[in-house]
Write a sequence for this structure.
């Protein structure tokens, strides 16, 4: 455990539950493993453990006030603290603090600092409360939101509670929290170091007139998760994205496009200097043959007929040009799924295809999770259970890295 925590700055948010009395021991363990610890306390937390105790064991004054009375110009402390964090832990996380974190409240130093965290800082949340509060649908819904953001939730232990009742709600022992923190900070091997990875994401928009278009439901979440993870795994990443509401991830190059023809142009120009292409975009198969120069008025005709022409199959085109590149496609299917995906794998000359269903809850468009099978040209299939797209991205890229090794890239 020592090496993962050594030299890291850990922000520990303590909210007001009885389990707060265990936090000095948690601070002691983190410090013993070589971390520097900054504690943030909510006002109610001070009913259970004193700032003097936590300030002493952490060797840092505890922070509670966003506007500390007499320290001029120091109201940006939460920003500076957030930017130096290797990990943000909330332990114990009360039902109230969970709700505030889930919904973006910024009404104390703990919640304000959480909102100021750069996106790459991992968050470990340790809920602790009475069982009825923990199992309440509101608390569970808030936990689901936080889980969906990729935060690690360490579930409470089951056992006797301060109320005299018994059930899930006890904060796990400090040693378990410190061990989980170390696991999160364990550095991943940079399996894609030195590789140039090209990823497509999102839908394409095919214009009808200056105000209308044909498109699909792709949110870009799958492609963006792949791009961010590939960058974290050491790759030099270019992300070509159709119109989505996601902001540019840090540490990689993003090319924004609108239509299938624009996406084709961007991908074709990047392809020669690419080692691995993953096509997660949902490219529109058709576009309107003649785009109207001005808004089509409904008064001008009864029904409107549009002539659609086929868009180029970008991936199939790149499959024909493939030299040293490893090519991975996606297949979004509703029926005869394996048969259709296998056909696409062969026709597009791919090294693997990631099959997901459009009509399965928790899979495909827009959701934070996906359920996939990866099919290979030799007929083997690797299946994955439902998981966050962010986690699945790591699994897919680890498969890609093995395929590239096999292809001697
Ligand atoms: O963006 P999200 O909301 O997170 O949703 C993720 C996703 C469902 C979009 C993603 O997981 C996915 O399945 N992407 C591929 C969708 C798709 O277009 O599948 P397809 O079976 O129609 O196409 C097969 C492959 O050919 C795909 O890699 C596609 O990018 C590519 N293609 C398709 C048509 C076309 N004209 N050119 C292409 O290159």
């Amino acid at each position: 455990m020592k090496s993962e925590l050594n030299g890291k700055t850990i922000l520990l948010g303590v909210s007001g539950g009885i389990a707060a009395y265990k936090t000095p021991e948690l601070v002691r363990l983190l410090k013993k493993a070589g971390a520097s610890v900054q504690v943030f306390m909510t006002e109610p937390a001070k009913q259970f453990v004193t700032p003097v105790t936590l300030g002493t064991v952490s060797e840092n004054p505890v922070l509670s006030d966003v506007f500390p009375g007499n320290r001029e110009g120091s109201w940006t402390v939460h920003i500076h603290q957030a930017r130096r964090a290797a990990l943000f832990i909330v332990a114990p996380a009360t039902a109230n603090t969970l709700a505030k974190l889930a919904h973006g409240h910024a009404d104390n130093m703990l919640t304000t600092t959480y909102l100021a965290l750069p996106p790459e800082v991992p968050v470990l949340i340790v809920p602790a409360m009475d069982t009825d509060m923990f199992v309440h649908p509101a608390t569970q819904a808030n936990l689901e939101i936080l889980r969906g953001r990729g935060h690690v939730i360490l579930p409470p232990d089951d056992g006797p509670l301060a109320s005299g009742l018994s059930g899930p709600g006890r904060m796990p022992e400090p040693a378990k929290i410190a061990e989980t923190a170390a696991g999160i900070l364990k550095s991943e091997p940079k399996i894609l170091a030195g590789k140039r990875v090209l990823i497509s994401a999102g839908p394409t928009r095919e214009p009808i007139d200056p105000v209308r278009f044909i498109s699909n439901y792709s949110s870009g979440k799958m492609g963006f998760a792949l791009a961010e993870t590939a960058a974290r795994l050491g790759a030099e990443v270019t992300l070509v994205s159709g119109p989505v509401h996601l902001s540019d991830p840090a540490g990689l190059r993003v090319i924004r496009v609108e239509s299938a023809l624009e996406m084709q142009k961007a991908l074709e120009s990047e392809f020669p200097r690419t080692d691995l292409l993953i096509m997660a975009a949902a490219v529109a198969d058709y576009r309107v043959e003649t785009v109207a120069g001005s808004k089509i008025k409904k008064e001008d005709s009864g029904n409107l007929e549009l002539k659609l022409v086929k868009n180029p199959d970008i991936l199939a085109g790149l499959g024909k040009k493939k030299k040293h590149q490893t090519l991975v496609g996606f297949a979004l299917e509703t029926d005869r799924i394996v048969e259709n995906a296998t056909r696409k794998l062969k026709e597009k000359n791919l090294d693997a295809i990631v099959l997901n269903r459009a009509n399965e809850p928790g899979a495909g468009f827009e959701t934070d999770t996906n359920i996939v099978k990866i099919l290979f040209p030799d007929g083997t299939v690797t299946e994955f259970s439902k998981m966050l797209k962010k986690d699945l991205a790591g699994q897919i890229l680890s498969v890609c890295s093995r395929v590239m090794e096999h292809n001697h890239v």
